[in-house]
Amino acid sequence: MTAQPTDPAIYVDRLSRIRVAMEEQQIDTLLLSVGHDLPYLSGYPAMPLERLTMLVVPRDGDATMVIPALEAPRVTEQAGVFGLLPWGETEDPTAIVAKLSAGSKRIAVGDQMWARFLVELLPHMRGVEFTRAVDVVGPLRMAKDHAEIAALTAAGAAVDKIAGELQRGEIELIGRTEAQVSAELSRRILLEGHEKVNFAIVAAGENAASPHHHAGSRVIEPNEIVLCDFGGTMAGYCSDTTRCVFTGEVTPDVAEAYAVLHEAQRAGVTAGTVGTTCEDVDRATRKVIDDAGFGDYFIHRTGHGIGMEEHEDPYIVEGNTLPLEAGHAFSVEPGIYVPGKWGMRLEDIVVATPDGPLILNSSDRSLVSVA
Ligand code: ZN
Ligand code: ZN
Ligand code: ZN
Question: Does this model's pTM top 0.85?
């Protein structure tokens, strides 16, 4: 979150498009606090603490950032974007926000605003209808511009380097615990230029059958699968990749399933074209896995959008009829999980472009033997 673009023109443009959406949706005021919509529209990531920071965006008129006085030095007022309104320790910031929003009938609030802020605002705003800001900001945030795609590409390349190191056996596995390997992946994520590690899942053998397994004290043995799913935030944008390696010669049952997984993942990536619905991308991976008889073992959606957040719209899931647009960035990560035995997942980040799917990850997609 340290490297938001500093050119005010970007935020002027984003805010003007936000106001078009507010007009269409009859939203009078947009209230954004902690979370990613705030830096997306202002360049400032609020400290996620108890003191209220709130960007108040009226449909007409200037936006105001209400901010704790002691944090005001972190932000520079941006002409045409927002003005600053610092509040002192003994003032009531909710009253200030309520005053700035006075007369609004419909107010959209950010998903990640603390519940306490909203609860404290409610008595000041009787009769106001509240909606989710994701309907206003989400479509904009989904369609990444060139700078955002470049940031996602750079973050992807950084984790690909680590995947390559893993596949070349440069990260020791056998005899170490999952937690030790997870810590090493995390260290390398930072070394490769990320400002933050978001997760480093390491799951060995039967643990890999739990998609979001928490790396623990399980020691990695010879002749088993090791699933590594890791990513972080680099220059404000996220990376996320999954590769599996095998600590020995791959057994026939695992090899057979992996061939299906690989094929399913390729089908999902290929389906990720402009105009295809999110659910059709999900169906593309699922069909391959279903047809091979592993359908019951694919227990999650195909993927999620990615950008300033690891998981954001659009979600690649049955029921999401949203057609992909140029600039939509998302993961394609089918998995096959056989409880008590093993699990596997293969994940790349893909951007829909007018020229077809652009794959942001390039490390080897096969099940590499690291024995
Ligand atoms: Zn996940
Ligand atoms: Zn992942
Ligand atoms: Zn993912």
Answer: yes
